[in-house]
């Protein structure tokens, strides 16, 4: 039986015959031509032919100009692409479904469904949510990640001091800044050694295990070597700017048997791709489905709460893509060859890490939206705490405890000084 | 003396204080904080501090709503980033200047200037325009490239027949379809052997040397091996879907001393990044400057003439980025540390390949816009010729000859049957 991956496009055009356009995509991006083929050849080529699954046209309510240019008339078009047409890797799939087509007018890739057969070629996250929790010994609450306040131009002593300040507050993960590259002041192996030593000192006081996600950077073919050197120096997690290197490079790092630490995917450059309504790739595909498929154990993305804002429904769509163990939400239609069974995801779940502008007062909102399988990620909310970074970490942990106990932050803050100070500084939205 | 790479952003906001925003970018994406640093620390950190070079605000003419949403108020902001802050590779530069920032509202990276010091770390195209011309022995006219009509589901015999048909028309280059991946019917080494044999047969008739750009695909870390196997089987050029793998992977392929063939960069997925006025990366940066820096010998992009349309000024900006030997157009301002000399590009020029919807009647326009250092790239314009693909190639060569001789295509077509038929079929815009 043939197997298909399914792409959903939103396509804006004031006048196009969208059904005709859908047919031309399904043929043009697969067998090239169809109606002029002899019947015998058609029979032979049918297994390579793209299939139009649905065309849902939305006519503009008024029929006039919308605020976005044009009338706002669009169609959501679903096309099934035979797995037989591409190799089982993300570059081949993306080039097939959105290579040339991305340049063909106002069109956005809004969903992408991987066939069970295609997915079976991917190992996905090596640790995932449960694996990361196992490493930290924390299973019952949201995790807490913090980031350095500033890194460029700082030497090892300064960086280690910052690291210790964060670690002392009881955070679970600390990540490098994504713009910290190989540099003479804090080269990766020395940085890992110094920071992991600070982590050990902090653990002696807090009892808290800690993952340090060190930024893997530089020439593409040397990334795995660099990661292994960092791990050799003691690194127990990696940070990776996935979109600067492509999804297959993440997959290779994640699948490497010698890289036995979780990988946190940074969304750097993602804003060049997801925010336009007319062009690009939806955040749920880019930072959700593809990151998980490629093996990210944790995925950072702009939260709907803070300074870098992504609409809440997009955040929820990313979350769903990262954590769901059932794939029915991708369906709503039957792909050719689909036997109707609801497949269970063969991939471990990735930890969602909504980021930017997070302070302790937002923890109730984060838990309400994401549940406990979330990483609360803070920079200014830790370092900007009136009593210092360690107190900032403690304020977040207290906020997490308060939410677990069902106690409003303002009330919990009365008996927990750090949280109280944070709520006074930033407010609380509980 | 410090050295800086310079990013120019177009930033839309109805109310923002753009000067303040520019300062916050220059500080936030470099040293992190500035005004709260002690004076001694500021002195130490100054070499890492981003510099605002200019902020040009364009207020909306009417002050009201524009057709694009918002008032249309925007600013072009130039920021200089110290080379000291990032390693000398494209991922590090892009993550620095547009990693986090890409997600911060309506902002597009519209230009990127590499410091001479940064550029000096790149070899650029191994062949470039002159090298490709040398390989083909053609120095005085636009080159002609053709592409397969359809590839998926075809076996070696069918593919070879198509190849020969194109080659027999006297084309200079034939490229794989970008959606042809490793597959059981036409695996890369067998495909190369069969097609290069067809190229030899055609050359015996036409006398025309020919480059066959075979598509390098699959796992990221195996691309170089695959390229070398293809070259071992006789391939004399490569096609590469750069944006599916990242610019550094192109750079590594291009810099590999064992890959001694030109590389043609395909723009697949580029439409997810360049067309929006509000988000993404300008085509001249994405398909121009970065492709050349990373070592593409030929760069395909949507032409302004045909079916997949890019505005003409964007095409011209790509062309300039690919071929200019002087970098003054990147300036218009003085970067800190810039001694005022106009640097000459240390990189070979890349061949511009405007593509999609090209027929012989467009050759005069292409030459008018691009000069003779251009590759005329045709698919339907070759295969759809009323007298067949070989005649299609000849029609293009005749059109190129006519333009060189300053003879209108309609006139030249009277004595050259293939061109005459093409002009009758598609018209001529001379």
Tell me about this structure.
Chains A, B: Its EC number is 5.3.2.5. Chains A, B: This is 2,3-diketo-5-methylthiopentyl-1-phosphate enolase. Chains A, B: One of its GO terms (molecular function) is 2,3-diketo-5-methylthiopentyl-1-phosphate enolase activity. Chains A, B: Pfam families: RuBisCO_large (PF00016). Chains A, B: Keywords: Magnesium, Metal-binding. Two copies of one chain form a homodimer. The first copy, chain A, is built from 17 helices and 13 strands. The mean pLDDT of chain A is 92. In chain A, the strands form two sheets. An eight-stranded parallel sheet of chain A has the order 12-11-9-8-7-6-5-13, with helices on both faces. In chain A, strands 2-3-1-4-10 form a five-stranded mixed sheet. Chain A folds into two domains: 4-119, 2-Layer Sandwich (Alpha-Beta Plaits); 128-426, Ribulose bisphosphate carboxylase, large subunit, C-terminal domain (TIM Barrel, Alpha-Beta Barrel). Helices cover 38% and strands 17% of the residues of chain A. The radius of gyration of chain A is 24 Å and the shape is globular. Chain A has helices at 18-28, 39-45, 90-98, 116-119, 128-136, 156-167, 188-206, 223-232, 242-245, 247-255, 283-294, 312-323, 363-370, 380-383, 389-405, 409-415, 417-426, and strands at 4-12, 51-58, 74-82, 107-113, 143-147, 173-175, 211-216, 237-241, 263-266, 280-281, 298-302, 351-355, 375-378. Chain A is an alpha/beta fold and 430 residues long. In chain A, helix 12 links the parallel strand 11 and strand 12. In chain A, helix 6 runs parallel beside helix 7. The longest helix of chain A has 19 residues, at 188-206. The interface between A and B is large, with 74 and 74 residues.
